[in-house]
Design goal:
Layout lengths: L8 H7 L14 E5 L17 H12 L3 E6 L7 E7 L3 E6 L3 H10 L8 E3 L3 E6 L6 H21 L3 E6 L11 E4 L3 E3 L7 H9 L8 E4 L4 H16 L5 E9 L6 E8 L4 E15 L11 E13 L1
Parallel strand pairs: 1-2, 6-7
Antiparallel strand pairs: 1-3, 2-7, 3-4, 4-5, 6-8, 8-9, 9-10, 11-12, 12-13, 13-14
Length: 305
């Protein structure tokens, strides 16, 4: 047995000083398909018992720009699939025999009103448990998922919790994605689940594990998080508006302006963002090959405008 068998990329990532901020990139257009986790493959979107026609349709949707993930909840019918379309905010229950027709209509851009769909009412919380992809997601992800499901049920919180296939950043397990807010989290331990859910239920990012808002660039994500921390230090709860990156002619740095507004005050912050090199392991599959250097965005300075 190799020495790497007892190591985890998520542990190495912490030891390497690998930051969470700026790692939240995720496609805006998503299709989530419930599928029994024991049938998942290493692919985030193809199950081992999908027939070739269905797998081809899924792959074509992914090639067109819609990210496809498999999700799972214990006890759901194996041959009746819950589908979520985002950002449309719609859910559908589709029998397996009807999946090809549904995906064909979706790919063609046809009206889906003929399918029994419903508007999403609760936020979705996806926790990566994709052990076939990376053992960290089995070890750390599943423990956090269990605590998420238990806490939401016990406290009747307004979330639907699902196990998910690969969400990106295996070294940051346990990884969580929240829809429709498009906030991504990493290194969420079971003991952090309750405060995480309480923050999300209140419409606030949970800063100890926050990777960023997925539709922002990595530099913007870092600026957003730094601004939230600046405001939190001053006990200010505010809505943020993150501006575009402005390049600095004399360096590789960028400046991001973050406007904020609370109930009784407002202001603006400027974040000077640059990169730093981190020598890290990306996934457990890379443990035997050793770490490699990666550039990560960080905020070097933030100040009021």
């Amino acid at each position: 047995m190799s020495a790497s068998a007892h190591r985890f990329c998520a542990v190495d990532s912490i030891e390497a000083g690998d930051p969470l901020a700026g790692t939240a990139t995720h496609a805006e257009s998503n299709l989530l398909i419930s599928w029994p986790r024991p049938k998942w493959s290493r692919s985030l979107r193809i199950a081992r018992d999908m027939d070739d026609d269905l797998a081809s349709r899924v792959n074509r949707l992914a090639a067109s720009g819609r990210r496809v993930n498999l999700i799972h909840q214990r006890g759901r019918p194996a041959l009746r699939h819950r589908l979520y379309l985002l950002p449309e905010g719609r859910s559908f229950d589709v029998e397996r025999r009807d999946l090809p027709a549904f995906l064909e209509a979706l790919e063609a851009g046809d009206d889906l009103s003929g399918w029994a769909g419903a508007a999403m009412t609760d936020s979705l919380v996806l926790c990566c448990t994709h052990g076939r992809k990376d053992k960290c997601c089995a070890k750390f992800g599943y423990a956090t998922y269990q605590e998420l499901a238990r806490t939401v049920a016990d406290r009747d919180l307004p979330f639907e919790v699902w196990e998910s296939s690969h969400l990106g950043g295996c070294r940051l397990a346990a990884s969580i994605m929240v829809f429709p807010s498009m906030r991504k989290y990493g290194r969420v331990a079971p003991e952090q689940v309750l405060p995480f859910l309480q923050h999300e239920a209140d419409g606030l990012p949970y800063l100890p594990c926050y990777r960023g808002q997925s539709l922002l660039t990595p530099a913007q994500q870092c600026a957003e998080i730094s601004a939230l921390e600046w405001l939190s230090d001053r006990n200010i709860r505010a809505a943020l508006s993150v501006g575009p990156e402005a390049s600095r002619d004399d360096s590789k740095e960028v400046v991001v302006q973050v406007d904020w507004a609370s109930n009784d005050d407002s202001g603006a912050l400027t974040a000077r963002c640059g990169t730093m090199e981190v020598v890290r392991i990306d996934t457990c599959a890379d443990l035997d090959d050793g770490p490699t250097a990666s550039l990560c965005w960080v905020v070097k300075n933030i100040r009021p405008l």
